[in-house]
């Protein structure tokens, strides 16, 4: 018990003094996960809208498949990307393995089905009266989609927050394709919060692990508070 208390106190000291290593890992985690979330949003929101309002054979099966991929193991995604970008893989010539870019790709693929499925749910929850009114007023397809997205904007925003939370908290894919490398250069280092916590814990550096864990929780809490504030306004 004493070791845990001592670890928490040391963790608070590292955070309050803005320890350079802790802050660098935290910033890198945010940059990688935020980039993946933005890329996934660009594809997931239009795709979710197309599926929700589309009428084509196999639509329900496609939605079921997307929802099944919610629980896609991160190590499976990491293994898939690893095989594609490794030295013997089809994209090995791009030399992406053990780089932040590889981690962004893995996180994007991981959260893409989640954000797509949640977008479908958000749009399907829009009041049918609003949709019928837009159609009766002769709205074009683009006008219809824009106005429905506006109605579902808070749910869409929550979808983006869920995607970011999933990205920044995953560890399996990050280790497989990133390698948890602590390089001197910020751009070439691949050590993020989750992989650093795993490493520091295995090395017995409990205080460092707790500090990184607290930072991760603070980031998650900050995102949720920001979403809640926007929704209340």
From TrEMBL:
Keyword Plastid among UniProt keywords: no
Membrane-spanning segments: 30-53, 65-85, 97-124, 210-230
Residue intervals of the ABC transmembrane type-1 domain: 26-227
Membrane topology value: Multi-pass membrane protein
GO CC terms: plasma membrane
InterPro entries recorded: ABC_perm_TupB-like, MetI-like, MetI-like_sf
Primary localization: membrane
CDD domains in the record: TM_PBP2
Similarity annotation: Belongs to the binding-protein-dependent transport system permease family.
Record protein name field: ABC transporter permease subunit
Native source species: Methanoculleus formosensis
Lineage of the species this protein comes from: Archaea, Methanobacteriati, Methanobacteriota, Stenosarchaea group, Methanomicrobia
